[in-house]
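Form 7-S
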Amino acid sequence: MKNSNVILGVLGGVAVGAIAGILFAPAKGTKTRKRIMKKGNDYTKNLKNKFGKLYDEANAKYENIVKDAKEFATDHQGK
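Output:
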């Protein structure tokens, strides 16, 4: 199993657990909805930060590979 699948599974489980905990907590509906929205926004922000970093890292590696391939092709052109 890939690490990204495990991470997504764990994050999903945490999110479901947090929402279930909030829904079964003895609080007013408006307060509960505010808590759910806050948790949802926090999780969304965290996911964007996590996957944004992964995208940036992958993009940098891709750019390095393309640069190296171009240099190799230029160095070995006509040989």
